[in-house]
């Protein structure tokens, strides 16, 4: 297909496609004449992934390039490729300025990971995000919320199994990464909405007339 058709099929404007090619995010098309290039389904799949990383994941071009480098690295385990994408999705956490509280929260998170037997590195960004959340809870007078971590972990494991079972339906690595990005960002929105609905039901059971 020519670049115009690729644009129509993906919804990505032609100038944007050319920009992605210049930045090395998208491989150039195969030249069919000095001024014409042809594109195929691999370009369409890569464009879909780029847009998912950009529009859904909110990644910058430099971060997208790093994820695509992981996707294209021969023999790289799928687990590492998915991690390269997922680890860049979390929002940057501000410095809370409380070294003691942060250290205690990190210890709590590491104890949780060890207790659950999770195969997660100690510097995983999600572990840092959880530690920051615990520090914020403590500052607001809700340090006891940490007592619920295992209950939340039980639910998280069940959701993670469902997520990865869905991801596993895909074949191409790019499709896997796209699914992880969309599932992480929009899946969190789905889960949060379900949680709020469950809150309403539980509140009605406990406090309703």
Automatic annotation (TrEMBL):
Organism of derivation: Streptomyces luteolus
Upper taxonomic lineage: Bacteria, Bacillati, Actinomycetota, Actinomycetes, Kitasatosporales
Name the record gives this protein: MerR family transcriptional regulator
Domain HTH merR-type: 1-70
Annotated stretches, region: Disordered: 85-105
Keyword Lipid metabolism: no
Swiss-Prot/TrEMBL keywords: DNA-binding
Domain of life according to the entry: Bacteria
